Amino acid sequence: MRNSASSLLRQQHRTITELKRGPWTPDEDSVLVDYIARNGEGNWRTLPKRAGLLRCGKSCRLRWMNYLRPSVKRGRIEADEEDLILRLHRLLGNRWSLIAGRIPGRTDNEIKNYWNSHLRKKLISQGIDPKTHLPVSEAPVPSLRRYRDIQNSDPIINGQNGCHGTHNNNNECLSTAGGSEIASVDVTLGDEEVGDAFSSFLNSLMNDEAPFACQNQAATPPPPSNSGFGHQEGWGTW
DNA sequence: AACCTCCGCAACCGCCAGTTT
DNA sequence: GAAACTGGCGGTTGCGGAGGT
Fold it and tell me: Which superkingdom does the taxonomy of this entry point to (predicted)?
């Protein structure tokens, strides 16, 4: 315990005395880009030292992921992208990385910022609860029936716009289950049963079996990921 | 011109889950 | 099996610019 405490202190001391924070300079950007071009991504912890940057690995990763990657699309969010964000958020909630994975070139950070600064306010001004996507006058917790209505009325979710099956962690289509399964759940269930069914639906989302279409499957094979949902927004070297 | 407020966005923080030792 | 390490995620912060007074 004492070892880890002193290690932490050393780490903090190092952070305070050696590591740079705040906005990145063009010079730092080019060092990072050059390094990754030569050596590829990964090993973020040791990357700064090897690249000669006075940043923590986390900061380097964030800068690369959100700003420097060639696949990152800059500029304003288009109307169709906004529409897609709204629909995906209605289904997934604040699962920014999952949402970003379905919008080529956009990062989770960008979508999160756009949501918080634009879309959330837009919905509120329209009298819609940004959490439930329902009119504020309605019950805060969506029922399964309402959930089914959302799915049936949404071409992205109900599969009229591309694939609509289950996906694994690599964002590959596995089956045509998912949305249609949920949509076919008996809506005459009692409150508790509805709660259970809804919970299981949410669990399926937690396993990335989201019943919505992903339009970019073929063109954008995702990188392998060692964590739950995978980071699906890019397809460079991982 | 100076000050204030608001807004957008880059960056940071804390936590978690998966992997490695 | 436990601890340490690593990468990733979502929430939050704070800076800088724009616009208003």
Answer: Eukaryota
Print the domain residue range for A39. 2-68
Please give the tally of structural domains in chain A.
2
Cβ neighbours of A56 (radius 10 Å): 20
- The C1' atom of B15 and the CA atom of A41 lie apart, in whole Å, by 24
Closest CA to the C1' of B11: that residue is A22
Query: What is d(CA A228, CA A16) in angstroms, rounded to the nearest whole number?
Result: 33
Distance CA A124, CA A134 (A): 10
Q: Quick check: A167 CB within 7 A of strand C? A: no
- Whether residues A101 and A61 share a domain: the answer is no
Dump pLDDT digits (tens) for A50-104: 899 999 999 999 999 999 988 888 788 888 899 999 999 988 888 898 999 989 8
pLDDT digits (tens, 9 = 90+) for A186-237: 333 333 333 344 444 444 443 434 333 333 332 233 333 333 333 333 222 2
Residue A125 shares a structural domain with residue A197: yes
Q: Are residues A83 and A63 in the same domain?
A: no
